[in-house]
Amino acid sequence: MIEPDFHAGHHPYAAPQLPPAPHQDAVDVVIVLADAGLTLTTLIPMEIFQAAGTLWDALHGVRPAPRFHVRLASLSGHSVQTPYGYTLRPDCSIEDIDKADIVVVPGAAPSRALAAGHPPCLLSWLRLWHQQGACLVGLGGGVAALAEAALLDGKEATAHWALMPVLMQRYPRVLWRTDYALTEYGQILCGTGVHAAIDLSLYLVEKFCGRELALRCARALALNLSDTLHTNHAVRPLSRPHADQVIRETEDYLRRNMHRDISAEFLAERIDLGVRSFIRRFKAATGHAPGAYMQLLRVAAARELLENSAAAVSVVSTRVGYSDQAFFRRLFKRHTGLTPSAYREQFGNSGKRHRAAVADSGGACHDPPSQLSVSASGTARSDGR
Question: Which InterPro entries match (predicted)?
Fold first, then answer.
C-alpha cells in the first residue's frame, strides 16, 4: 500500500535557499477525493497547479511564488482507496472547505462512476460552490456527479466515451457532446479523461494567472499542448469566478464586439445602472475596472493573432480595435514585456517552424515554450475606466 504525503504548502521544486513565497492572491483549488477515484485525474491537476509559479522559477534560480493553494478533500476527511490499491490521504473533508475558486471532481472507476446515486452531501456541496461562483471541473467519470447534481441541465458537456451511453440515458437534460474532448459552459468545465486533465488544468492556469505563467508552467513540465481548448469556445481571460450573471452577460457582450469603441456609460445603460454603480459592480465581480478588463481582452486577442497568423502588426492592431498603432504597441509591451514583433518571433507558429528547421539542420536554437492558444476577444477603451 502506498500512502502519498501530499500537502498544498509543500513544493518539492523549491531550492532550499529559495523557499516558496505564497502569492497574496493565490487561487484556491479543491480536488475532491472519493473511493475508487482514478489516480491520474487526481494527481495531474494537483501537479500542474502546484507547479504554476514554482517549478519554472526554481529551475531558473528565482524564488518560487505559488499561484495556487491546492487542497485535497474527501467526503469524510478520511483516506480513500484507488481502484488499484493505493491510498490517498486528504488534507480535510469537504465540509471544512471555506474558500474555493476551482473545484475538481476527478474520474472514477467505471463501476463507481455509473453507480446509481452519488452521496447527497457531495451533490449539495457542489451546488453550493457553484452558487458561490467557483469553477467546477468534471473529469471522466467525475462528470456524472455534476450531472446528478443537475448542474449540467441544458448545458453542453462531455465525459469518457465508455460512460456516454449510460450518461445520455440517465441524464437526458444534458446536451451531451460525444464529439468534444472538452466543454466549457459558464463556470462548468468537463473533460473526457487524462489528456483533458492536463489541458483543462493548464487552461485554468492561463485563465486565472495569464498566458506567460501558463507558458512557463507548460515548458517546465515538458508538456506539448494541443489546440483542443480553443477549437469550440472562447474564454474570458483573467476573470476570477463570480456569480453575477448580469456582469457575465456584459463580459460576453464585450467578447462579441471587440472591434467597437464601447464606453462604460453605454455598458451601464445596457443593464440599467448608473455609471459609478456599474464600475463598482463590474470590478467587484471580475477584479478589474471595465477599461482595464477590456484592454486585457484586446491584448489576448492580439496575442492569438500574432501566434497563429501572418497578419501585419498594423492589421492586428486594427482587428482588435486600436486605430492608434503606436498606442497599441505600447499597451502590448506593457502587458507582455515584448513588442508585437518580438512576441511573434518568440511565440508565433511560423517562428516555431523556422526554428525547428534550423535545429533539424544542425543549427543551434531553443524551442519556445509550449503554448496555450485560447480564443479571446473584446473591446476596450484606452482611458482605463
Answer: Class_I_gatase-like, DJ-1/PfpI, Homeodomain-like_sf, HTH_AraC, HTH_AraC-typ_CS, INH-QAR, Tscrpt_reg_AraC-type_HTH
Per the structure block, which three cell numbers stand in for 10?
Answer: 509543500
| Spatial distance between the Cα atoms of 268 and 289, rounded to a whole number of angstroms | 13
Distance separating alpha carbons of residues 219 and 55, to the nearest angstrom: 10
pLDDT tops 50 at residue 329? yes
CB 72 within 8 A of CB 88: yes
Report which DSSP code applies to 115. S
The grid cell for 173 is 437534460
Pairwise pLDDT comparison (373 vs 69), residue with the higher score: 69
How many other CB atoms are there within 10 angstroms of residue 33's CB atom? Answer: 26
pLDDT number for residue 92: 96
Q: Is the full-model pTM beyond 0.70?
A: no
Please choose, from the candidates 80, 66, 135, the residue with its C-alpha nearest in 3D space to the C-alpha of residue 103.
Answer: 135
Q: State the pLDDT at residue 337.
A: 76
**Contacts with 164 (C-beta within 8 Å, 6 or more apart), sequence order:** 176, 178
Helix residue spans in 149-286 (DSSP H): 164-170, 194-209, 211-220, 228-231, 245-256, 264-270, 275-286
Are the C-beta atoms of 300 and 376 separated by less than 8 Å?
yes
The C-alpha cell that represents 188 in the structure block: 462548468
3-state secondary structure of 191: strand
Q: How many other CB atoms are there within 10 angstroms of residue 256's CB atom?
A: 12
108 and 122 in contact (C-beta within 8 Å)? Answer: no
pLDDT confidence bin for 300, thresholds 50/70/90: confident
Q: Which domains does the chain have, with CATH numbers?
A: 27-231 (3.40.50.880), 245-360 (1.10.10.60)
